[in-house]
Design brief:
Helices cover 1% and strands 42% of the residues. It is mostly beta strands. The protein folds into 2 domains: 12-164, Neuraminidase; 193-350, Glucose Permease (Domain IIA). The model is unreliable at 166-184, 316-328 and 343-355 (pLDDT under 50).
């Protein structure tokens, strides 16, 4: 059963529980105008910790400190720590996306470097990430750092000293070319249900909604093509806020362009950052988390970080027009599609007769 812990007139977001389970940090306010609060889970008392704007709170493992970001009207961000008992704030420097490793706090500077600070040795040190223009970073469960730069996502080691590239098959053939790699029509359908929206201005992807009456747990989202998982989880604090939870799979190079697929709006996920997945691998289940009007999968193909039309990957120039693996017409709103299973890429496509 659910228990209401806190109610207020302003929107609430970003709850983060301390490691001992005694306190909950959360944000109060509209997006971009949030303040940092803490709730004592034993007494039920809630209080504002710091005046002014705050985002992305993270507890230290011992619960003695909270790190967070302080945005300002100029668009810059500062990383700071806060003593939840006294309310004392200690500014550390420009940057964002803090994460604790033991008693050491890491974050990313505006120059794309990884900074580190510890209460035991208060000097801040920085390392090179190997990339520039980092606009977002997240820390995976494994010692990996997800960097958002140039519109796309890459994996780095924890200190940001080098980039890690996807392992496994590295497709390098153009979408319409012959031979191995990504070829026209070789992507599988990523979920089962009705097509409810298509790639168009203002909507950079394909929406598939499960049939009415089917539980979310029976509406799996699967990988459209083999690749490396570079994002798997909460996307609210990054550049994909409206997506809720998100899986991003990097498929490597196609005609010199990095291709990735995006799977959004789920609640229950089954993969981790850094994991290699094959086509048809279950990633998550359809849901309505994020900016969504109903339970569905929002699916995108991105080329170099830019949303692109997914059709060439599903139903491009047929290699075998008589074969079941290739669609010979475009998907339409109302079509019923069936997700690809592991080890095979052909799909079943049925025109909508009745819903």
């Amino acid at each position: 059963s659910w228990e209401v812990l806190f109610k207020g007139p302003q929107p609430l977001a970003g709850p983060r529980a301390s490691a001992d389970g005694k306190r909950l940090a959360f944000l109060v306010g509209s997006p971009g105008l949030t303040e940092l609060w803490v709730l004592d889970l034993e007494s039920g008392a809630a209080r504002r910790l710091a005046p002014g704007l705050a985002e992305n709170p993270v507890w230290s493992p011992n619960g003695a400190a909270l790190a967070f970001e302080r945005p300002d009207p100029a668009g810059t961000r500062q990383v700071a720590t806060l003593d939840p008992e006294t309310g004392s704030i200690y500014p550390l420097g420009p940057g964002g996306f803090p994460h604790w490793f033991g008693d050491e706090l890491h974050w990313v500077t505006p120059e794309g470097r990884v900074a580190a600070w510890s209460p035991m040795s208060p000097g801040v040190r920085v390392t090179e990430t190997g990339v520039s223009g980092v606009g977002f970073a997240a820390w995976a469960d494994a010692p990996l750092l997800v960097l958002y730069h140039g519109g796309g996502l890459s994996l780095s080691d924890r200190a940001g000293r080098k980039l890690l590239h996807p392992e496994g098959p590295r497709p390098t053939v153009g979408a319409a070319g012959p031979g191995p790699g990504i070829t026209a029509g070789s992507f599988g359908i990523p979920s089962t249900g009705y097509v409810t929206d298509l790639f168009r201005p203002g909507h950079p992807g394909l929406d598939i909604a499960k049939p009415l009456g089917v539980p979310e747990s029976q509406a799996p989202i699967v990988a459209a093509y083999p690749g490396r998982v570079v994002w798997a989880g909460d996307a609210w604090s990054g550049p994909y806020g409206g997506y809720g939870n998100l899986v991003v799979i990097d498929h490597g190079l196609v005609a010199g362009v990095q291709v990735a697929t995006y799977y959004a709006h789920w609640r229950t996920g089954y993969v981790r950052v850094g994991e290699w997945v094959e086509a048809g691998r279950r990633l998550a289940d359809q849901s309505d988390y994020g900016w969504a009007t109903g339970v569905h999968l929002h699916f995108e193909v991105r080329e170099g970080g830019t949303p692109g039309a997914w059709r060439p990957y599903f139903d491009g120039t047929p290699v075998d027009p008589a074969g079941p693996r290739y669609l010979n017409r475009a998907l339409r709103v109302g079509d019923f599609v069936v997700a690809s299973g592991p080890g095979w890429a052909f799909r079943v496509l049925l025109p909508l007769v009745r819903r």
